[in-house]
Amino acid sequence: MTSFEEAETEETVTCLHMTFYHPCQKDKMMFRCLNFCKREQVRADEMAKFGRDSNVCHYNLTDTRVSRIQFSLQFYRKLNSSEFCFEIKNMSKKTKLLVDQTELGYLNKTDLPWKCIICFGDYQILAEVQEGESVDYFETYLHLTEVPILQERCLPSLQPIPENGISSSLFPSQGKSPMETDENES
Fold it and tell me: What is the pTM of this model?
């Protein structure tokens, strides 16, 4: 057999891509301690921690409004499955963590969707999981963006338009204020 035939099978590695945004990044440089555009290995049995305390968190955010440990990510394999996942846990007593539409209070945790937006304070992080097979470690690959991940969209008023086609919102109410009535009154 040749050395090529004897070589170990190359396994793919699960990679968590995270794109960071904060509106004051240019002025305050809160992401200056993060290694962008470089894959980093994290052992599978370690928890990836994000926060202000560089002694505890590998992913350090230099902002006094960020908790010592803001959130953690745990890599795991689902029971009776070969599927690998991440679990995100809010470690901040003061700030709620929003994972897509799910709000996490202190010590609440949930599975990280394959693609989601994580928000706390003015921070926005797009997280995308690239599947792999390695059981020993996973990788993180951090990116920085100057464009908000969540774009506020101005939606038109959802008030119904009356049949005559004239919306009452087009004309300011002239001195009228809402009246409170009891449903039992006639």
Answer: 0.75
